[in-house]
Structure formats: structure tokens, C-alpha cells
Design goal:
heterodimer; A: mainly alpha; two-stranded antiparallel ribbon; 11 strands; B: alpha/beta; nine-stranded mixed β-sheet
């Protein structure tokens, strides 16, 4: 939920005069809500502790095991009042840790109501059985209502809405004009407005049925995946990594691989259920397929350096909210107060995730995992137990009961079956992936070329040093001594000499390293294939690696010596210590080189992946390495299959609600992440179920759903309330969806549109996130900007860009900072110049009408509006004023006026609004 | 200053010819599905009960000020200097049960137990009528001691600098990110002046602590302000050449076009709000430089704040700006001092040099602020808070530093209906644990909210369960 008001400025004015008038205590307004908030969770439909229910006045009177809750006791207090006002911790209600105490004022309300005879409506109904809650009931394909009288409507969606219009006595608004529809469709499906040509094509063919073709074209456009990818990135909590300075603490490096997978999957219309399964368990479903493994970025994103419990709790919370519309997080410390989820259910859900860890897999051509690598999940802690935390306190685990993975009883379609997955060798030994050894060799080859190039650059120095060296001293790195005197030419020579030595050692090391890798790669292949020479190759690999280590230590020593020479006098002692350490390392490596190879010796494997180390043990160093097991528990696969089982009542409903919300601005069920009893029921339950059935029965095709929704008459309605006073009076909140609500464009759509209108938007797909420092100049789509808890783009944040921790819906605030960003940013000013040039077609219509045609074009291009004469007139007046007041040196006052007009239209309300 | 501004704002909006129906409100509630909660009503922008304070100036010293060397003198440190804690009569302060308060996030070289007592690095004098003791590093604050209520019994739970966010939001970093006090005030109270943002942040904020709204939304983040009349706000002036005249013509046109559009799209609350937001932005752009223009301040005033002195020019300007912003009706001004590393006050070594230098930067300006607010009759309705994320260890770190210390530290409040010359709570003889009238950081929040006339429980948002400790309890003993 995002609790910010869309109308921050206006909101405080709206509540004046709304203060309630206190009359005699009203049961429905004063008493019942109080009991509902504090008591129903234990004494209602969910539970009946002590045999007591309090959800109707009759049930209160009926009482429980301790008797009637309302009759006055000896002290003149009813049992109810006695228990809520008791100071005895054993007695008072709600019990300790189960909720806040009643205040004196609240107790007075109860007492007063009871004293007045506890009046309540006769037809009061008790709470419904939680199993009967709308979202927990099995989903059934609803019967489609007969077509609306008068033929309103374009598809089945409209038939469901028409029922409500009839019963509510409201008439749906007429269809929006074509130019509004075109802009709506473009921004909704691809996130940028139409081009001049696309607008002209629609304008020039009045009456043509351009709409369905445009829908198909836009759904097939690669920009569609970028637009909707960002929506799902909100829901699935995309975040680039963040930490303290350079230390990774949250999420993962290169998480953008997951972002790219989302965009590609949407463009390919990958079924929604498949996407969910891959995000939760690609490592168990497609364990050797790096393309699909990217999907588990969903889990890699929750990685947290320091605390396993926060990590697990976030995972349970957002798997629940994101895929199921369930607030498991409310059951972390105690049984859920509103939904049939016990505290144990929270930990059972956690148990699905308990074994998982995160690693980076090597990608073709790059073995430096700081530079690239695919962050992905794997089951590393196969036997990690899950325990319930008493009252949610991590220091208070109940170790007497081992919690096993299980789904909540109320939603289980039979017991879930968990089958361990035997992983292919490519997953447990990722170095076997065909590109891995090559990537290592390529890397070593590249390092050698670089080292040789660096040495070659020193050509002259090298020659000089060699010449002088033969005349005056030693240049062999292993025995190079300290200079006796460091002054003048002598000192310069020593410095050069050190530099040359370092470069030569670097080349030696690069050569030895390349050779070591080649030999090791050969030995690894031999071992995989059980070659006859396996043992010999192993020995060769061990020896080659020792040689490489020796060369590396020599290089380190040369560098250390160079640092001594270059250091200021006061730093020299510290640098000399490093030389000493390096010398010891050289000696050690030399000894190892000379030692015979024993049977127990081994060489380091060339890695195909690295576990991302955690620090849960508070030891101030990385936790012991988690190896890659040969099996996976199969827990997450089982969970994913349960979530996406067509019989699961929640998953499809939650997904279509999100789709609907982003197309029409208002979800059918208001709380997109809470389909529980505390959430609002949907305004159109049958429509929601029908859409969910369509999703499932179309093979979970999201494009099918997009098509259905955008081709409905509901989607194509106008948002103008002119002449709609009657409907507005009858249904001011649009609960019957008789009109479109105008939407504030999301941050990314605002920036992307500005650049697109200027003809500058770079819609290239994929790749590493654009770092903050490069964003000002970048023309890439906004979804590619680096976006983490710590680093967010100022312009985008101003327009309520997604919070990375949780964003099931965007805020739509309207604040002055947005006005400042649009009036003052270089983004807008620069775009205005370009758009002005782009729109100006000299000679097309000479004289005053040239300006008029510019204004009309600008209106249509920037706002998707056909300018009215009074709007054209107002623009012309302003342009005239700009020309008149142009700076004296301005050579092209008309061009300046055009730029300024474009600037004004980019600041028009309807630029940031989807009408 | 008037509390009835929301009404005039509504008039302002309806004056634009765009009538307001219940549409906006209903839509908003439906959007969040809150209409179902019968116990919840959104904030009205008005206080819940009569306020004592109208504005808050929140001074936060980044890094952790030594409580023993500022407002909580501990002569025993000098007496036992060089001895280990276990050699003093107070060895029980290290009872593991008492230390269990700490919730460690980052095991590193800092935030550890420091056993060897480090003597006090500065002298203390009694000041004012109250005779309260203040260290010699803060002589100007000391002169105002009879305005202060010093709370010497604070504690927190994060022994690393996540305690900065914890002091602002009440929540430990591991719990996630929660709205800060200023965001709650912004959410709960309307503006006192529509020409300026009512929640402003000045100074250095560490990047892990640079947002306020969190689940309340970015609209409740503080607006960052630079003390530079030529460029005070982000996007506060055109980033490309654009004369005020040309901009004025443009903004007039935008207003006219939007109003015309309102005829075709009547009763559109978003359109009305956007019109209003442009008005406010324009006024803000114009008013902010004026608020930061010190040219009309007397030489005496500028000297009082130390603006003429190199070492306190920056902070002095921030304090003078704070007074001018409060004068103009800004509700909440958050000023953080000491950037770099995890906060400049983080004196792991060389505490004496560090604290004496930083105190010199802030002492005169803060003293000036208190005196200036009082002589202008503004202190009564302006609550000034001096806080820091934690104190520092009684024991020495390295040769001459003190480590992070969460078990006891000091803050002070002044003005806005707070008693002056009061010391509340106490730490033990070593300054180790808060032992008397202990207060978690949210008690400071509760005190401030109460003075502003807000009840945090009435601000609670359905679905966002706040714990008892999030609300805190007002420190009634220091309220006048």
C-alpha cells in the first residue's frame, strides 16, 4: 500500500466540518468497530477462544465458557468491561502481546452501551466463515451476462460492467476522441507518445478502424516489454545493489540480468505462471540454463549481508504479497489477526526458502565477477532447520519443534509434495559450462597482451636501463638490491629500473598464469572425461600453478620494491615491511616449487561461479564457504507449482488485478497486495474472476489480457466529466467504472516521453544499469537507470519513482517540486529546443497561419489534444509576447518563441496526465 | 501565522473555478482501500489538540557526540582514568545482561567494549540560575542553559551509525526503512506558509539516511535546501538561460491553458491540484532566495551567529537561515552537522582535537539561535532540539579516542513549551548506562509531537502496524 495522498496540496482542505457529533453510543459506529479491531481475531469467525464470539450483540449476550459477556456482575460491571479494564495481567483482555489495552474512553463507550441495554440491529449477521472469504474460494469461470441493452460495449469485460450501470442507474461515458485514444494506447502499452507520422495516420483516416491494428503493433513492439517490465519490477522489488561504500550489503551486483530477463520474457509473452515458477525455482527447473537462471534474480535481490532472518522475512512477506495477495508478514510474531494464517504458517512458508543462497555464475567472455556474472539462487544449506520465533524474536527460537515447508491449511489443495531435484553436473560444477574454461583462458591471454603492451611502452626506458644496467649493476628482479644513493640522475635511473622490473615481472607472471590456466583446464577436462593421462595432467597442473604463484610473488615483490623507491621518507618504513612480507612469500613459493608433488596435493579449479559470501556469524569476516550441492531440495519448485496451480484461488486473481490497475488506474480489488479479510473486496468480483479465468485458460498469456482490456469499451471511455453530473452524483467514487480516471504518468514515462518527443530517446535493450554520474547525459530509457535504496535519480524520484523496498502501487503525488523539475530542468529546456525545431515546417503554410499550424501540431504532438481556437489564440498571444521581449541580441525571436511554447506545453497538466 | 490556512487554501483552489466535490477524497480512500476501516480517518492538517509549538528546529550532530564531554560530566572518569572498568567500583556496568540491549548489525572494529577508562578531556562549569554543568567546549550554549532541558538518560540499540536513521525514525536498520519524525509532522500538519516547503533539510545527510517519507511517500521527504540565495533548491532556477520575464509569460500561459482545459474536463481534482502546485512552486522559487538573503539582517545579528568568522560561518548561516525560515512559517527544519566518514563527530581517535574543533563550529551559532529566538519572542513557539545518534564510551579506543556507545547519552530540547534549566534522567557514575528515567529515542519524538499538538496514534495508517515503542512516550517531566 502506498499511503501518500495523490493530492497532497488539496487534501487538508477537504475534511473540515467532518467532525463527528457524539450522540448516545451507537453500536455500529462506536462499539462494533472497537470489538472488531481488538477482539474478533480470537473471538469471531477466525477463532472462538473460551467458546466466546463477540461479533454480534446476540453472541455477546450468549457468552462463552465464562458466561454471558454483558450481564452486570456483583461489582456492577459486565464480564466484558471487567475483562477489558482488569489490571491483573492474567485477566485482562486483550492479553499481553495480543494487542493494545482499551483506553478509559473506550471502556466508557462499552459501559455506556451495555448500561443502555446493549441495543443493536435485529438483523445483525455474524462474521462469515473465513473459508467463504471471496478470494479464498475456488475460482470459477463466471457466467457471462447477456449483452447490454442498446448494444453498449465491445467485449465481455463490458458485459460485466453494464450490469452495474443498469443497477446503479449510471450511464457510461462516451468513447474518447481518437487522438486521446492513440496517446493513451501508446503510453500505456509502450510508455512513449506516438510520433507525428503515427498521429497523422490516424487523423488522415477518419472513421477507419485503426485501433485493433495499433494494439497488435504495440503489443509486438519491443518497447512493450520495457514499459511493462518496469511495472513488474515495481511489484517484484527490483533493486540494483547497495551497501556501505564499496561493500555489498543488499541485493546483488549485476542484478540487471534479471531486469533483462523480465523485459525479454514479457516481449516473448512468456506465460505468467512460467515466469513465477522460474523466478522462484529456475535453479531447480532449468538448472543449467543461464538464460532462465536470470529469473532467480527475484530471490538474489533479497540477499542481505548481515542478517538471515531479515532476508528470509522479506522473502516470505513479498512472495506472499506479490504472488498471493497474502500478508504473511502479519503472522511473524503471532497468529494473523484477520486471516486464517497461523504464526506457524509464516515459518512453514519460510522453510521453503531456508536452504537458498546466492551465487554469481560466470558469463561467456568474462571471469571477473566484479565486472559481470549472473546473480542467481541455489540451495546451499540443504539441512538448515527452520524454527518458529516466539513473538517473532530472533533470540527466542522454539527449537523443540522443527518446522517443515508447508502451505497454509486453508489454501492447500491436498498436501504439497516436495521431491528433491538431482542437479546436472553443469549446475553443481558450473566450471563445466562450455564457455567457462575458454573465458578464463581468454582473460589470461588478454592480461598477457596488456602486460606486454605496458612493457613495450617502456621501450626507451628499458633500453636505457639495460644499457646502464650492464655497465653498472644488476637488473635481475630476484636479487635487485637497494640503491645506495638516491639523488639526481642516479635516483631517476633507479626509479626507471624499478618500473621496468615491475613491468617485466608482470609479463612473466601473465605468461606463467596463462600457462597454468591452460594446463589446469586440460587437467580438468581430463578428469571430467576420465582420460588415461589424468594423473599426469594433474601433476602438470599442480606444477604449473606453483610456477604461476612463484611468478606472481616475484611480481608482488617488484611492486613492493618500487613503492619503497617512490615513497616519501616518512612512509618508507611501512613500505619496507611490505617488501619483507613479499620476500617471505617469494621464499615460500620457491620452496613449494621445489617440493615433490604428493598424492594429496591438488590444484585450484578454474571457477564457473562464486558463492556470494554472507556475514551472519558476526565474526567480522566472511562466513565459511557454501559449496554447490549435487541436489536441490525441490522445496521452491514445489511452492512455485502450488502457487501457479490453476486451482490456487489467489495467484491469477492477484495478477489480473495488477494488470487491470495499470491499464485503468484503479484496481478492481483496492488492496493489490492484500486479498485477505482486511483488504477491500473487489468492486467487480465476477469480472475479476472472469479475467483470471481468461489468464489461466489462455495459457497465462499476459498479452491476451492486455488485448482484452485495451479493446474493451471500458478502456476506451472518455475521462471528461462534462455533462456527467448525474452519474457523478450517483457514483462519485466511480465504483461502477462508468468513466475513465485520468492518470498521472509514472516518473519513467514522463522522462521517456520528453526524450521521445525530442527524437532522442534511446530504446536500446538491456545491459548494465546506467550509473548516477552518467544519467544526466544518457538518453537511455529510464528503466535502465541505476536504481537502488541509496542511489536514485533526482528527476525520477520527484515524480514518485518506485521505492525499492516495496511498491505494489505508485504514488501519484502532485507537489511543487514536480513543477520546478518541469519548469527548470535542462532535460525539459533542451528537449523544448529540439521539439521546436522538429515541429517547425517552414513554408508549409505561410504567414500567421504558419504559427497557428505550429501551435496545432505542438498541441497534438505533445499533449494528444486537438487545440481549440481559444487555446490557439492564447498561445499566439504568448508567442507574440515572447517575440516582443526577446533579448536584444536574439537573431531568431520566432524560433525562441516556438521553443518557449513547447516548454509551456511540456508544463501543461495534460502532458504528465494520461487522459 | 494561522492555523486556518487549509481553509483558505481550499478557497484558493475553488477560486480557480474548478469546484471540488467529494470526488477527490472518495477516490483517494478507495484507491487505498481504506474506506473499509471504520476507525481510521486521514489527517486534517490540523493539530489533534492545542499545540504549544508551531515549528521545530532539529539539530543533529552526525557521528555521535560524547555525552561525558558535553552535557553529562563524569568526574569519576578522571578519577579512575587509566584503570580498567573492572578495577573500578562500577564493574557491574559490563554485566552481559545489561549489554544485551545492543542489536549488532555490523561487526567491525568499532562499537566494541572499551575497558580502559579515558579521563575527561575538558573541564566543566556551572552556568545560569539552574547551575547546570556544561563542558567548556560549549560556552555559548552554556550561556543559554536556563532555556534547556537536558535529557541525560537516552539509549538506543544500534551500535553502528545506522543509529542515525534509528534516531530519526525510531527503528533499527534491520527492521527496514520507516518514516522519520519530520515526515510524520509533515504528514500530520498543514503548512503555516504556502510560499515555502514546510519540511526542509539543511546540511550533510549520510546517504543511508537521506530520505524521510518512506512508506508515507516521497512527497513527505524533506526538501533539501542549500544556504545559497542564488541556488537554494534542486531545480530551483532554470538550468538553461531563461529570463524571469519569459518564464512569467510562460507560466501565465500554462495557467490559462490549464484553466481552459478545465472547461472540457471539469471537476478534475488532479488538474486543480496541478494548477495549485505551479502557483506554489512559483512562489517558492521566488520566496526562497528572499528567505535566505541576509542583507537586511543587522551586522550585530550576523556577528552574533558568527557569520563573520571562518570557523562558524557555514553553520552560523544555517542557524540564521533556520530562524528566518521559522519566522516565515516553515514547520520542520532538519539540520545535520558534520559530514564525512560516518559523521564528523565520530571521534574514534583524537577526541579532544575532534570535539573541540567541531564544538567551535556549532557552539556560537546555536547559542545565537537560542538567544535570537528568545529576544524576538519566537522561542515560545519554536522547539529546538539538539541530538546525536549515540554517545561515546567511557573507555578509551586506541590512545585518545572514544568508541560508539548506545547505553547512555544526552540530548537537549529548548523552547516550544519545554521547561528551561532542567536536567532530566541520569547515567551511572561512569556515564555508561542510563539509569534514571531511561528514554528510547522515540520518547523525544513523542515529546515533540505532543508539543505540536499531534497524537501519533491518530496518524497511524491502516496496514502499517506501529509498535508501542514506535510511538514513544512524551517526557512529561520536561514539559512546562
Amino acid at each position: 500500500m502506498s499511503p501518500c495522498f495523490p493530492l497532497l496540496l488539496a487534501v487538508s482542505g477537504l475534511f473540515l466540518g467532518a467532525a463527528p457529533v457524539r450522540a448516545a453510543v451507537d453500536y455500529l459506529k462506536g462499539v462494533k468497530p472497537l470489538l472488531q479491531e481488538r477482539c474478533y481475531s480470537c473471538h469471531g469467525a477466525l477463532k472462538q477462544k473460551g467458546g466466546l464470539r463477540l461479533d454480534t450483540a446476540a453472541l455477546l449476550r450468549q457468552g462463552g465458557e465464562s458466561g454471558d459477556a454483558l450481564s452486570m456482575g456483583a461489582d456492577g460491571k459486565s464480564l466484558l468491561v471487567q475483562r477489558v479494564s482488569s489490571t491483573d495481567p492474567e485477566e485482562h483482555m486483550p492479553p499481553q502481546h495480543e494487542g493494545e489495552r482499551f483506553t478509559a474512553a473506550q471502556i466508557a463507550i462499552l459501559s455506556e452501551w451495555i448500561a443502555s441495554g446493549a441495543p443493536a440491529p435485529a438483523d445483525e449477521k455474524p462474521e462469515a466463515d473465513p473459508r467463504e472469504h471471496w478470494s479464498f474460494r475456488p475460482r470459477q469461470r463466471p457466467r457471462v451476462p447477456a449483452a447490454a441493452p442498446g448494444g453498449w460495449g465491445r467485449n465481455t469485460i463490458d458485459a460485466f460492467l453494464a450490469q452495474g450501470y443498469a443497477s446503479g442507474g449510471v450511464r457510461p461515458l462516451a468513447e474518447a476522441p481518437p487522438e486521446v485514444l492513440l496517446r493513451r494506447l501508446f503510453l500505456d502499452l509502450v510508455g512513449v507518445p506516438p510520433t507525428l507520422e503515427e498521429i497523422a495516420a490516424v487523423e488522415e483516416a477518419p472513421g477507419s478502424d485503426w485501433y485493433p491494428a495499433a494494439v497488435e503493433r504495440l503489443l509486438a513492439d519491443p518497447r512493450h516489454g520495457q514499459r511493462w517490465g518496469r511495472h513488474w519490477m515495481d511489484i517484484w522489488r527490483y533493486s540494483d545493489w547497495w551497501g556501505l561504500g564499496a561493500q555489498l550489503r543488499n541485493s546483488q551486483k549485476h542484478l540487471w540480468h534479471w531486469r533483462d530477463w523480465i523485459v525479454e520474457a514479457l516481449n516473448a509473452d512468456t506465460p505468467y505462471d512460467e515466469m513465477v515458477r522460474l523466478m522462484l525455482a529456475a535453479d531447480e527447473i532449468a538448472p543449467a540454463d543461464p538464460q532462465k537462471l536470470r529469473a532467480t534474480g527475484f530471490l538474489a535481490r533479497n540477499w542481505f549481508l548481515f542478517n538471515r532472518n531479515s532476508w528470509m522475512e522479506e522473502t516470505v512477506e513479498h512472495v506472499g504479497k506479490g504472488f498471493l495477495g497474502l500478508t504473511f508478514n502479519c503472522a511473524k510474531c503471532h497468529d494473523h489477526k484477520y486471516d486464517p494464517l497461523s504464526q506457524a504458517d509464516f515459518y512453514k512458508m519460510r522453510a521453503f526458502f531456508e536452504p537458498y543462497q546466492v551465487r554469481l555464475d560466470v558469463v561467456p567472455g568474462e571471469t571477473n565477477l566484479e565486472r559481470d556474472g549472473i546473480p542467481r539462487a541455489f540451495d546451499g544449506l540443504l539441512d538448515a532447520p527452520t524454527f518458529r520465533f516466539v513473538r517473532g524474536e530472533e533470540s527466542n527460537a522454539d527449537k523443540s519443534v522443527l518446522i517443515l515447508p508447508e502451505v497454509p491449511t486453508i489454501l492447500s489443495q491436498g498436501t504439497i509434495v516436495i521431491t528433491p531435484v538431482v542437479l546436472p553436473l553443469l549446475a553443481s560444477q558450473p566450471e563445466r559450462q562450455p564457455w567457462v574454461l575458454d573465458a578464463h583462458l581468454e582473460g589470461a591471454q588478454k592480461a598477457l597482451i596488456e602486460a606486454e603492451a605496458a612493457l613495450a611502452k617502456l621501450g626507451e626506458k628499458k633500453a636505457l636501463v639495460e644499457k646502464k644496467g650492464t655497465a653498472g649493476g644488476e637488473v635481475s628482479p630476484s636479487v635487485a638490491g637497494q640503491p645506495a644513493a638516491q639523488s639526481g640522475a642516479d635516483a631517476a635511473l633507479w626509479l626507471d629500473r624499478a618500473e621496468v622490473e615491475e613491468a617485466m615481472c608482470a609479463v612473466d607472471f601473465a605468461k606463467a598464469d596463462l600457462r597454468s590456466m591452460k594446463v589446469r583446464a586440460e587437467a580438468m577436462r581430463a578428469q571430467w572425461e576420465n582420460f588415461p593421462h589424468e594423473q599426469e595432467l594433474k601433476s602438470a597442473a599442480i606444477r604449473a600453478e606453483r610456477e604461476a604463484v612463484f611468478a606472481r610473488e616475484l611480481h608482488t615483490l617488484a611492486e613492493a620494491r618500487g613503492r619503497v623507491l617512490r615513497a616519501n621518507v616518512d612512509k618508507k618504513p611501512a613500505m619496507e615491511k611490505q617488501v619483507k612480507t613479499a620476500e617471505e612469500a617469494v621464499a615460500k613459493a620457491s620452496k613449494a616449487l621445489a617440493a615433490p608433488i604428493e598424492a594429496a596435493d591438488s590444484y585450484s579449479l578454474l571457477y564457473g561461479a562464486k558463492w556470494t559470501p554472507t556475514r551472519f556469524l558476526s565474526s567480522a569476516k566472511d562466513d565459511p564457504v557454501v559449496p554447490f550441492p549435487k541436489v536441490s531440495t525441490g522445496r521452491r519448485k514445489a511452492l512455485a507449482e502450488w502457487i501457479t496451480d490453476p486451482r490456487n484461488p489467489l495467484a491469477a486473481r492477484v495478477a489480473v488485478n495488477h494488470l487491470w490497475a495499470r491499464h485503468l488506474g484503479t484496481p478492481l480489488a483496492a488492496n493489490t497486495f492484500d486479498f485477505g479479510r482486511k483488504g477491500s473486496p473487489p468492486t467487480h468480483p465476477e469480472l475479476l474472476d472472469w479475467l483470471a479465468s481468461e489468464l489461466v485458460e489462455s495459457g497465462w498469456s499476459m498479452k491476451h489480457l492486455h488485448r482484452l482490456i485495451v479493446t474493451s469499451a471500458a478502456y476506451r471511455m472518455s475521462s471528461s466529466l462534462a455533462g456527467a453530473e448525474d452519474a457523478l452524483a450517483k457514483d462519485p467514487d466511480n465504483r461502477r467504472l462508468w468513466r475513465r480516471t485520468p492518470l498521472r504518468l509514472e516518473a519513467e514515462a514522463v522522462r521517456d516521453s520528453i526524450l521521445a518527443l525530442a527524437g532522442e530517446l534511446d530504446c536500446a535493450e538491456g545491459g548494465a544499469s546506467i550509473p548516477a554520474a552518467a544519467q544526466n547525459k544518457s538518453k537511455r530509457r529510464s528503466l535502465y537507470f541505476y536504481h537502488s535504496n541509496n542511489e536514485r535519480n533526482l528527476f525520477l524520484t520527484t515524480f514518485d519513482e518506485a521505492a525499492v523496498k516495496e511498491c505494489y502501487r505508485r504514488d501519484e503525488s502532485i507537489v511543487p517540486q514536480q513543477a520546478l523539475a518541469l519548469t527548470n530542468s535542462s532535460l525539459v529546456h533542451d528537449a523544448a529546443v529540439r521539439i521546436g525545431v522538429l515541429l517547425f515546417k517552414p513554408g508549409s503554410a505561410p504567414g500567421a497561419s504558419e504559427e497557428e499550424s505550429f501551435v496545432r501540431n505542438a498541441y497534438s504532438y505533445i499533449l494528444g489534444i486537438k487545440a481549440k481556437p481559444e487555446e490557439v489564440a492564447a498561445c499566439s498571444r504568448a508567442m507574440e509576447a515572447w517575440r516582443r521581449t526577446a533579448p536584444s541580441g536574439e537573431t531568431n525571436a520566432s524560433a525562441l518563441a516556438r521553443t518557449n511554447l513547447v516548454w509551456a506545453l511540456l508544463n501543461h497538466n495534460d502532458f504528465v496526465t494520461l487522459r | 501565522m494561522s492555523d486556518s490556512l487549509p481553509l483558505s487554501r481550499r478557497n484558493f483552489l475553488s477560486d480557480l473555478g474548478l469546484g471540488f466535490s467529494g470526488l477527490a477524497l472518495g477516490a483517494m480512500l478507495e484507491r487505498e482501500g481504506r474506506a473499509t476501516s471504520t476507525l481510521w480517518t486521514p489527517p486534517t492538517g490540523l493539530p489533534h489538540f492545542p499545540p504549544k509549538a508551531k515549528s521545530v528546529i532539529w539539530l543533529f550532530m552526525n557521528g555521535g557526540v560524547s555525552h561525558m564531554e558535553s552535557f553529562d560530566p563524569k568526574p569519576m572518569l578522571s578519577k579512575y582514568g587509566g584503570k580498567t572498568i573492572s578495577e573500578t567500583p562500577y564493574a557491574e556496568v559490563q554485566d552481559p545482561k545489561k549489554l544485551a540491549l545492543e542489536r549488532l548489525v555490523v561487526p567491525d572494529g568499532n562499537g566494541n567494549q572499551r575497558n580502559k577508562i579515558f579521563p575527561l578531556q575538558v573541564g566543566f562549569q556551572k552556568h545560569g540560575q539552574s547551575g547546570m554543568e556544561v563542558s567548556d567546549w560549549f560556552p555559548n550554549i552554556a550561556r543559554n542553559v536556563d532555556k534547556l532541558a537536558v535529557v541525560r538518560s537516552m539509549y538506543t540499540t544500534d551500535s553502528n551509525h545506522g543509529a542515525q536513521t534509528q534516531f530519526h525514525s525510531g527503528r533499527h536498520m534491520v527492521d527496514g526503512s520507516y518514516p522519520t519524525l519530520g515526515a510524520w509532522v509533515h504528514y500530520g500538519l498543514g503548512s503555516l506558509n504556502d510560499n515555502l516547503p514546510h519540511f526542509i533539510s539543511i546540511g550533510t545527510r549520510e546517504y543511508w539516511n537521506n530520505k524521510d517519507g518512506h512508506y508515507l511517500g516521497p512527497a513527505h521527504d524533506a526538501v533539501p535546501l542549500r544556504i545559497d540565495p542564488s541556488n537554494p533548491l534542486d531545480f530551483g532556477k532554470p538550468e538553461r538561460p531563461f529570463s524571469a520575464e519569459a518564464q512569467g509569460i510562460g507560466l501565465d500561459l500554462v495557467r490559462e491553458l490549464n484553466t481552459l482545459r478545465g472547461k472540457e474536463y471539469p471537476a478534475d481534482p488532479m488538474l486543480a491540484a496541478r494548477l495549485a502546485s505551479y502557483e506554489l512552486a512559483f512562489r517558492m522559487q521566488r520566496s526562497m532566495p528572499e528567505a535566505l538573503d541576509f542583507s537586511k539582517e543587522s551586522a550585530e545579528t550576523k556577528a552574533l551567529y558568527g557569520i563573520d568568522q571562518q570557523h562558524c560561518r557555514d553553520f552560523g548561516s544555517q542557524m540564521l537561515a533556520a530562524r528566518r525560515l521559522v519566522e516565515r512559517g516553515v514547520r520542520f527544519i532538519q539540520i545535520q552537522h558534520g559530514g564525512g566518514g560516518a559523521g564528523a563527530w565520530d571521534a574514534h581517535s583524537g577526541l579532544k582535537a575532534n570535539h573541540s574543533k567541531l564544538a567551535l563550529q556549532v557552539d556560537q551559532p546555536i547559542g545565537a539561535l537560542l538567544a535570537d529566538l528568545e529576544r524576538r519572542g519566537m522561542l515560545e513557539e519554536t522547539l529546538v532540539v539538539f541530538a546525536t545518534e549515540f554517545g561515546r564510551t567511557p573507555g578509551t579506543q586506541g590512545a585518545d579516542g572514544r568508541d560508539h556507545h548506545i547505553f547512555g547519552f544526552s540530548v537537549w530540547l529548548a523552547g516550544g513549551g519545554i521547561k528551561g534549566g532542567v536536567v532530566h534522567g541520569a547515567t551511572d557514575e561512569l556515564g555508561f548506562h542510563a539509569v534514571e528515567n531511561r528514554h528510547y529515542v522515540t520518547d523525544v519524538h513523542a515529546t515533540i509531537l505532543r508539543q505540536l499538538g499531534l497524537d501519533s496514534r491518530q496518524l497511524e495508517i491502516p496496514g502499517r502496524k506501529r509498535l508501542e515503542i514506535d510511538h514513544g512516550k512524551p517526557i512529561t517531566e520536561i514539559i512546562a
